[in-house]
User: What shape does this take?
Amino acid sequence: MATETAGSASGTEATQVAMVDPRAPRFGQTVTAAGMAAFLATRNPAPLFAVAAVLAVSLLSGWRLDLYGFFWKRVMVPFVGAPDEREAASPHRFAKLMGATFTVAASALWLADLALAALLVAAMVGTLAAVAAALDLCVGCRMYRQVRFFRELGVV
Assistant: This one.
């Protein structure tokens, strides 16, 4: 995801919030959904492993090595133009964390010769990514907001 920061000051304290072009996560979700669909259709684990690697590297690098974001910013934005607005990156990063967790899990299941379990997990990831990309209904983003809500209430 291509990110920028926006500062907001509260008294003497300044907070930096990473901002993202809202189309960038949709692009990544589309690529993820396509990768999972390719894996499910062919039973060739290469697309699964590739998506898992891209998401895991992005997560482990602290979002500095994000192939989806790099491709979006360098290749797609020149075609579609700059965004009209930006939104907070945190919910999208949480959703990407969930995607990374489950694609790595599906990869491990495949390598452990638990093909049916790997296919089911990959189908779940692909379905959620496709729904997020097509309908702008990001389950991981909603989960992030719910966890944040409960954290603010002091429940978690």
About this structure: The longest helix spans residues 90-111.
